[in-house]
Amino acid sequence: MKKNGVKKEEKKEMATRTFFPPISVSLQKAERTEATRLLRDAGFDFDAPNYSAKSAWFWAAKHGCKAVTLLLLEQGADIEVKDNDGRTALHHAASNGHEAVARLFLEKGADIEVKNKVGRTALHHAASNGHEAVARMFLEKGADILVKNNYGMTALHHAAWDGHEAVARLFLEKGADIEMKDDYRSTALHFAAFNGHEAVA
Length: 201
Description:
Elements (H helix, E strand, L loop, with lengths): L7 H9 L5 H8 L3 H10 L13 H7 L3 H9 L14 H7 L3 H9 L14 H7 L3 H9 L14 H7 L3 H9 L14 H7 L7
Helix pairs in contact: 2-4, 4-5, 4-6, 6-7, 6-8, 8-9, 8-10, 10-11, 10-12
Pfam families: Ank_2, Ank_4
Organism: Lasallia pustulata
Keywords: ANK repeat, Repeat
């Protein structure tokens, strides 16, 4: 890096020609707000994709780096940008159980019902990974508990399939339809039984 920072005309090329944008590399290790700030000041493109179309934005969400996420938001990161699987930063935060970051995204206008390529919402991601606190927060924010993915699975189906008793119980308390079937006519009970999740069944 040059003494006075990266030349403006070089910044995007340098960020996009590598597998990971430099800022993403720093986020894989820890929440390094100062490192992020330095790279921003150097002029790096925070939305530069890596090999899977993920940016620093997704890494911050995945690792629960709230301070870095806020900084990226302040720099104009696209809150609805998707990776190759159609997941937004909200999906990544939900999958990894980062309630504070997920809440921040919603406060900044993220679409709680946005779906990935297979029709999963953030609530589905929280359910399949057993993150009860995140799922509860989504429901409090108005997430549709009955929304289905491309295969007809609801959030309850996802919780049952992966054996997350606390999440499944939460959904039932909040009005999930235990008799709802997916496109193959399977209920959440079928999923729990098939996978041997006796506590959920």
